Amino acid sequence: MTLTIAGNETGTPRSPWSGSAGAEELTRWKTAARQAAGGLATDALARDRANQDPYREVELLRRHGLVNLLVPREYGGEGAHWESALHVVRILAAADGSIAQLVAYHYINQATIAFYAAPARQADWFRRSAEGQWVWGGSVNPVDPTLELSVDGDGYRLNGLKRFSTGSSVGDVIIVNAAVTDGPHEGTVLAFVLERGREGLELLGDWDHLGQRLSASGSVRYNNVRVDAADILGEVGDEPFSTLVTPGIQLAFGNFYLGVAQGALAKGREILLGRKNAWILSSAESYAKDPVFQRTVGEFASRIAAVEALADVLNRRYDDAVAKGAGLTFEDRAELAVRTAELKVVSTEVGVEVANRIFEVTGSSSTSNQVGLDLFWRNIRTHSLHDPVDYKKIEVGASYLLGEVQPITLYT
Fold it and tell me: Which one, of 160, 162, 178, lies nearest residue 223 by Cα?
């Protein structure tokens, strides 16, 4: 079987994105995200407890135009930039971490059209995705390499199990990464797209974790699933532009964790302002007027503001990087990856700490299951373990001290 690998063509622009988001665009999508977040916030705790696949939530995202946000206008999409998309992730995370994760993965999975597909094929993929308002799930977890992609005539057959397949149970399509196990392309890792109802594709619905319960992150089993040439986006290689997948998703994580911290602090402020009287040893009129609690809230707000400032810089810088397309160098990519790792470090630590210590200012009554303040902590504690933050610290330190660059992977 002959494959067309993305980037083999010469003289063809690789990236469908250019420029950066203006004030009007940012305002539009922040407003849409806040409206969607408002709808999610009304029953976030009840939906988390019900632990059902988020089909209604996906329809909410469609109604607000968020699904096609990054698809270029010429292909039927909204033509927005990554800075806008990352703000959407952040805003949704303050209301519902599960749906923020679902959206973040959708954006990066959908963007693999540009990162992996040959330029001549991108238009068709984008058009079909836009017309169908496809939500993109992913089955690419690289530390779970149990898939076998074997040659079958002019196509392949896929077998095996892939865990942590975020969005797969509600996605219209699922992007899969698998290495070819035989034939002339043996060892080549291919990215391909399967519709959720493809024969032999089994959704196990086995996500049973502390948090992120509505992220649709269960396992997928592939039982002799047919993969045709038309399903294949391209090869997963180490060409700089195509590997922007990793800084992109890590940047989305940073915005996600920031949003959770903002949401936890906002909920804590609401609870604190509602507390009557003050601690028995305090001379303040109320808890909110007590310097002890003001100090803690001030610390949280200040650290969140610092993370936000870094995230805002990097969100725009990512647009600059993707706009370079085939002109992106390894040096460009490495510099962006290290800066994104810096964000991952501080957003993780601030997010986990705020979501944990917010209880110090809200009191024992806020631990009631009816309050649901724990939802923020459960969500960020669960997802922040996606990849060890200590290795991000090492990545930053090795770069700072020695100028060393980590090998390109789906984590670095």
Answer: 160
Spatial separation of the C-alpha atoms in residues 55 and 39, rounded to whole Å: 14
Q: How many domains does the chain have?
A: 3
Q: What is the pLDDT of residues 77-92, one digit of tens each?
A: 999 999 999 999 999 9
Distance in angstroms (rounded) separating the CA atoms of residues 201 and 222: 5
Q: Does some domain include residue 15?
A: no
CA 9 centroid distance within chain: 30
Residue 115 domain boundaries: 23-135
User: Are 305 and 201 found together in one domain?
Assistant: no
- Backbone φ and ψ for 133, nearest 5 degrees, come out as 45, 50
Distance of CA 5 to the CA centre of its chain: 25
pTM of the model: 0.94
Classify residue 88: in a domain, yes or no: yes
- Rounded Cα distance between 16 and 325, Å, is 8
Q: What is the CATH number of the domain that holds 152?
A: 2.40.110.10
Residues 6+ apart with CB under 8 A from 394: none
Those residues whose C-beta lies under 8 Å from the C-beta of residue 117, and which sit 6 or more positions away, are: 6, 125, 233, 234
What are 245-254's pLDDT values in tens digits?
999 999 999 9
CA 263 to chain CA mean position, Å:
17
C-alpha distance across the termini of the chain, in Å: 31
Together in a domain, 311 and 387: yes
**Token match 């997963």: residue?**
236
- Whether 10 maps to a domain, the answer reads no
Query: In this structure, is residue 18 part of a structural domain?
Result: no
